[in-house]
Amino acid sequence: MCGIAGIIDLHDERAIDQDALKRMSDALIHRGPDGHGNYIIPGLGMAHRRLAIIDLEGGAQPFHAKTRPCSLCFNGEIYNYQNLRKNLQTENIPLSTQSDTEVIAEGMALYGHHYISQLRGMFAFAFWNEDEKTLTLARDRLGEKPLYYAYTDDGFFLYASEIGAINAANLINPAKDNEAIADYFQYGYVPDPKSIYQYIKKIPPGHFLELKRSKSSSRKLNTRPYWQLSFGEKTSNSYDEACAELDAILDDAVHHQMIADVPLGAFLSGGVDSSAIVSSMAKKQQKAVTCSIGFDEASHDERKWARMVAEQYHTHHHEDIARLDTTSMVKEIAKTYGEPFADSSALPTWMVSKLARQYVTVALSGDGGDEIFAGYRRYPFVLQEQRARTLIPRNLRKSVFSLAGKVYPKLDSFPRPLRFKTTFQAIALDFDEAYARAVSIILPERVAALLSDDFKSSLQGYEPSFNIKEHMKKTDSDDPLDKALYTDCMTWLPGRMLTKTDRASMAHSLEVRPPFLDYKLVEWAARLPSTFKLEKYEGKKILKDSLTKRLPKDLLYRKKQGFGLPVSHWLRAKKDTPLEHLQNSKRWRESGIINVKTIEDMIRQHQSHQMDFGQELWSVIMFDAFLNL
Q1: What is the sign of the dihedral through the CA atoms of 166, 170, 175 and 181?
Q2: Which of 100, 134, 360, 610 is deepest in the core (most CB within 10 A)?
Q3: What is the 3-class SS of 415-455, one letter each residue?
Q4: From the CB of residue 395, how many other CB atoms can be counted at a distance below 10 Å?
Q5: By C-alpha distance, which of 29, 131, 248 is closest to 108?
Q6: Quick one: how far is CA 403 from the chain centroid?
Q7: CA-to-CA distance for 425 and 400, rounded, in angstroms?
Q8: How far apart, in whole angstroms, are the C-alpha atoms of residue 306 and residue 304?
Q9: Residue in 47, 192, 203 with CA at minimum distance from that of residue 116
Q10: Beta strands 44-50; 35-41: pairing state
């Protein structure tokens, strides 16, 4: 695991700003404290920060292929590199290390971008072919590893593992992207390929970008997919056959990701997914190291379930308590992510990463289980709403249910099945727009209330739901659950869940690997019928049923808790809270983006227990922290 950065002249061979490249590299030192390297020639500068995991002595970067004048900067791990290495040796390619880095460098030199689809792992890399004067940037299939890029006005192209490294170059206009700001307040993150900055973009998951040096190169850059997740063709296996198959496929994914020349452990939250990973690890590794974060608030604390699994599999288990330190943690999280990020579970993820790094260099996680096996609580509700849509004429839905959604009272304290206002509003919409509401961290009407009129006018009709709608169109299945899962895998998963884990873990020089996102397992899960994944209100049906011989049923079938903070409760504390800091901050008030009166009203109503505006206020707190970086 590493950090990569580079500056390339795509028009000529002008000298690279080496001071800017050094600043970019220095900004990534947390991603690679074990070593660093630069490669600088006319028109090209590549920088690398290394966290040594495989072949500790070899694999230093930038790495130069022996067969052709090509250079590689690589971040990630390739789990099938040993097989790929054998294949290259049959082609009489001379290999001098035991690293996955050399495999990518020689494979790309031999086959070009066609080689990317051979890689099984998580990765983001930059590959320069000196003969062809071509740069290739590529990102793994599900977006586990990040890769940002930008183009200067005078024709230099920059790339880096984190947005902060590109900003450190001081070569890019730092103007904010208003559409990205609107996306952030609705979803809590900025979806790919945008960033919070207008002139900095992300390579989307499963895509590569190929650029050729030319005096006529334009600033229009096109990324191309090398992989597409398909839900169209379903398995012919019975449910029992699929359960047995899942057991073996999961173990295979876990065991592939246990390759390391450094200490390896696992996050153990006490939920189904992380517990499943630990159960698979136990088949290959005795006394695995496991780490958990808990809360003083019982409603958010899952440590007893984590202990149950740790005791069952005799792991070396470690725990810590998440407590919000106003003066440091909010600022630290904002700095870690480099752009506004409102998922409150970033804080415990940051803390469990810090805890784990005391004992291991690599940790396996349960990320991805909810997205591929339909584990989120929203899925059964959106399917019920879709069934209602099919029974009610569209014109009737649009008129009657839209009106009902406006006049029915909002009952936040009621169980979700009784919150008819939200249900009426959703049924009035088409499925894609309703799903955009379902994955919103703040509902669109509340976002509209907290943004200023001038800012909303600047959007010129743009709506954050456009992003969800575009991905819905790309799904090769008419099944609404397939559409939801595909959209989540392309948006929510890389933009929110994997971003959260990558930045939090790499801030502590910890590599985190999610076996559920092994692309072979993801493709296998996509071929399952929806009924194998979701039954009434029970998500992850096949995963849970396949684990009954490994884990206690009380753990498998208990109510899902999640990993977020008790934000609403914490923001009602009497003193020294992020809310107190927000009230004293000028940045958000003077930004022209936020409706100050609305936020002041939300603070008053939240603190007096009239309404729960915990998420809205947390989103503004994190946005203000970003503005204060």
Answers
A1: positive
A2: 100
A3: CHHHCHHHHHHHHCCCHHHHHHHHCCCCCHHHHHHHECHHH
A4: 8
A5: 131
A6: 37
A7: 10
A8: 5
A9: 203
A10: antiparallel
SS3 per-residue string spanning 551-590: CCHHHHCCCCCCCCCCHHHHCCCCCCCHHHHHHHCCHHHH
pLDDT 10s digits, 290-320 = 999 887 776 667 889 999 999 999 999 999 8
> If you count them, how many residues does the chain have?
629
Instruction: Write down the pLDDT at residue 407.
Output: 46
Residues 6+ apart with CB under 8 A from 261: 52, 53, 54, 55, 56
For 202, 260, 438, 454, 480, the CA distances from 465, given in Å and listed in that order, are: 19, 41, 11, 20, 17
Tokens 């050399």 identify what position? 102
**Contact between residue 290 and residue 268 where contact means Cβ atoms under 8 Å apart:** yes
Query: How many angstroms from the chain centroid is the CA of residue 203?
Result: 13
Q: Which long-range contacts (CB under 8 A, 24 or more apart) does 324-327 make?
A: 324/565, 324/570, 324/577, 324/578, 326/576, 326/577, 326/578, 326/580, 326/581, 327/576
* Chain-centroid distance, C-alpha 70: 30
**What is the three-class DSSP state of 42?**
coil
d(CA 30, CA 149): 20
Amino acid letter at 612?
A: D
Residues facing 289 on adjacent strands: 265, 316
Three-state secondary structure call for residue 321: strand
Residues of the chain with pLDDT under 70: 1, 217-220, 298-300, 324-327, 397-421, 561-565
Q: Is 363 helix (H, G, I), strand (E, B) or coil?
A: strand
Which residues is 535 bridged to in the sheet? Answer: 538
Distance CA 496, CA 503 (A): 11
3-state SS class at 208: strand
Q: Backbone phi, then psi, for 624, in 5-degree steps?
A: -65, -40
Total-model pTM: 0.94
> Would you state the structure tokens that stand for residue 80, as one six-digit string?
């099938």
Give the separation between CA 346 and CA 355, rounded to whole angstroms.
14
Give residue 229's pLDDT: 97
Would you say 18 and 40 are in contact if contact means Cβ atoms under 8 Å apart? yes
pLDDT of residue 609: 92
Catalytic residue positions, numbered: 2
Strand (E) positions, 80-236?
Answer: 121-129, 134-139, 148-151, 156-160, 200-202, 207-212, 223-225
**Residue 121 pairs with which residues in a beta bridge?**
78
Residue 81 tokens, joined: 């590199």
Residues 105-135 pLDDT 10s:
999 999 999 999 999 999 999 999 999 999 9
Q: How far is CA 358 from CA 30, 270, 318, 348, 351, in A?
A: 15, 20, 10, 16, 11
- Rg, the chain, Cα only: 24
Cα torsion through 595, 378, 376, 205, rounded to 10: -60
Would you say 432 and 180 are in contact if contact means Cβ atoms under 8 Å apart? no
pLDDT for residue 7: 98
The order of strands in the sheet holding 148-151 is 35-41, 44-50, 2-9, 156-160, 148-151, 200-202
Distance of CA 448 to the CA centre of its chain: 26
Q: Are strands 156-160 and 148-151 parallel, antiparallel or unpaired?
A: antiparallel
